[in-house]
# Entry
Amino acid sequence: MENEIVKFEAGKTYYYRFISSYDTVVKCTIIKRTAKTITFKDDCGETMTRRIYILDGVEKVDIGHYSMAPSLGADRSAEALDKAEEETKLAEAAKEAEEEAARKAATRAAMTSGTARAAC
# Structure
């Protein structure tokens, strides 16, 4: 397999995070793409045009011009992020249900042993 470059596609949505606030996610939809630039609109409605560069086989653009500015990469599809978040929510719900069932079983066991002692 040759070294294929992961490229931005017009109409697709990608995301980026901030170094200082990893939980903050900004989604950007690619409006237009040329060979050297992309134009995109972020969650806040701001439209930006940025020059593309390639790093480790992935197209990227810098969002700002400061040391900790985030970068938007073509390998960060918002669809994949949404799917991962949904899987995490499902796993957390399953864990909570399991813990609740264990609490109920422990309560039943305590009540049963207490009733048996009172009957003696």
